[in-house]
């Protein structure tokens, strides 16, 4: 039933007149996306519940999820709003956290489609998860399908679950008990593993960046350490054409 | 004007501008292959940094051992090409069990 309303969506139309189809994704990717949707739903419910339990009016988490639509920035903004940090600090921290989406948007721009409606709507759907799904796909068609299918699915699921959580309020208790806080780093790890397996440069730069971000976390404000990780790119070695970096790893 | 509303609108507008960077520049400037490659690696670096800090820290503090242990279980499962569902359930389950056993 989901396929019928999704594939008719005009925002999925592309410059070539084609629509994104589920069949353009390699087998297994749809299942992966569905699983991330379930995990995001749980996080969304807890975001809604935490916001309302912290004393914010019902519309704040709901409007934030529709308009800002970025999990980590929303959590930190709500923590500052309910913890007395004030709206200016809340917005500034959120923006610092979200500045990384500029890099993701440059990396996935190819996969949105060429028409302006596709670019303008697609831009709002760029998140850590959609970027990870796009990077994991082998070719342009499946990257585009992965972007739109995961992007629209995540947007719908996130907003519905935040609404549900905000309405349910604090009745849910401590979500840490279910270990879900470990699920998200694990999801991202599973998503970047193919890139890390195939590309020595990504491995070297990623390892250095992770060490830098971890070392910087106690001393820098939220969001800055992850950006600083880009300094890890200095670990990249130039590939000479006669000594290819990837020994037979196009899969 | 309501301070919450201003906060949400400023955050939303700024975030959308960040997100527009790629789609607006795409097709106007032809990026050299070298820069394209750097962007792809850069996105991977950001994700790796995000998952590492997410695994080890909560705010500016150490998150306790249960979470990174769970992420490690998920990582090993993913490395051995376990299905995605197994990775997620393995990571969350390991962390939940360690917490049940009293580890922070």
TrEMBL record, chain A:
<keyword id="KW-1003">Cell membrane</keyword>
<dbReference type="GO" id="GO:0005886">
    <property type="term" value="C:plasma membrane"/>
</dbReference>
<dbReference type="Pfam" id="PF03591">
    <property type="entry name" value="AzlC"/>
</dbReference>
<comment type="similarity">
    <text>Belongs to the AzlC family.</text>
</comment>
<keyword id="KW-0812">Transmembrane</keyword>
<keyword id="KW-0813">Transport</keyword>
<feature type="transmembrane region" description="Helical">
    <location>
        <begin position="208"/>
        <end position="236"/>
    </location>
</feature>
<dbReference type="InterPro" id="IPR011606">
    <property type="entry name" value="Brnchd-chn_aa_trnsp_permease"/>
</dbReference>
<keyword id="KW-0472">Membrane</keyword>
<keyword id="KW-1133">Transmembrane helix</keyword>
<protein>
    <submittedName>
        <fullName>Branched-chain amino acid ABC transporter permease</fullName>
    </submittedName>
</protein>
<feature type="transmembrane region" description="Helical">
    <location>
        <begin position="33"/>
        <end position="60"/>
    </location>
</feature>
<feature type="transmembrane region" description="Helical">
    <location>
        <begin position="178"/>
        <end position="196"/>
    </location>
</feature>
<feature type="transmembrane region" description="Helical">
    <location>
        <begin position="145"/>
        <end position="172"/>
    </location>
</feature>
<dbReference type="GO" id="GO:1903785">
    <property type="term" value="P:L-valine transmembrane transport"/>
</dbReference>
<feature type="transmembrane region" description="Helical">
    <location>
        <begin position="66"/>
        <end position="97"/>
    </location>
</feature>
TrEMBL record, chain B:
<feature type="transmembrane region" description="Helical">
    <location>
        <begin position="82"/>
        <end position="101"/>
    </location>
</feature>
<dbReference type="InterPro" id="IPR008407">
    <property type="entry name" value="Brnchd-chn_aa_trnsp_AzlD"/>
</dbReference>
<protein>
    <submittedName>
        <fullName>Branched-chain amino acid transporter</fullName>
    </submittedName>
</protein>
<keyword id="KW-1133">Transmembrane helix</keyword>
<dbReference type="Pfam" id="PF05437">
    <property type="entry name" value="AzlD"/>
</dbReference>
<keyword id="KW-0812">Transmembrane</keyword>
<feature type="transmembrane region" description="Helical">
    <location>
        <begin position="38"/>
        <end position="57"/>
    </location>
</feature>
<keyword id="KW-0472">Membrane</keyword>
